[in-house]
């Protein structure tokens, strides 16, 4: 898996990761809770996080035309614990 500034980029995610109710998520999804990640699609870098904000998929935090911009989005939205 590739990382950029501490964030996973285009990670290989578990099955049904983008289509599973939070209360039904299997244990292999657990490491991804509150861990923002970046997915590259064409010219855009989208930032997602399994933070409970959506009931059936990770929450979309935003997108950028640059990897650096996507990392900024992830950093700014990450909980501060």
Q: Average pLDDT across residues?
A: 95
Give the helix tally: 1
Globally, the shape reads globular
Series of secondary-structure elements, N-terminal to C-terminal: EEEEEH
Write the layout of secondary structure elements.
Elements: E1 2-4, E2 7-9, E3 37-41, E4 44-49, E5 59-64, H1 67-77
Parallel strand pairs: 2-3
Antiparallel strand pairs: 1-2, 3-4, 4-5
Overview of this protein structure:
The protein has one helix at residues 67-77, and strands at residues 2-4, 7-9, 37-41, 44-49, 59-64. It has a 5-stranded mixed β-sheet, covered by helices on one side. 14% of the residues lie in helices and 28% in strands. The chain is built from 1 helix and 5 strands; from the N terminus they run E-E-E-E-E-H. It is an alpha+beta fold and 81 residues long. The chain has one domain (2-77). 19% of the residues are buried.
Entry summary:
By secondary structure, the chain is α+β, with helices and mostly antiparallel strands. It contains one helix and five strands.
Key descriptive features of the protein:
five-stranded mixed sheet; 1 helix; 81 residues; alpha+beta
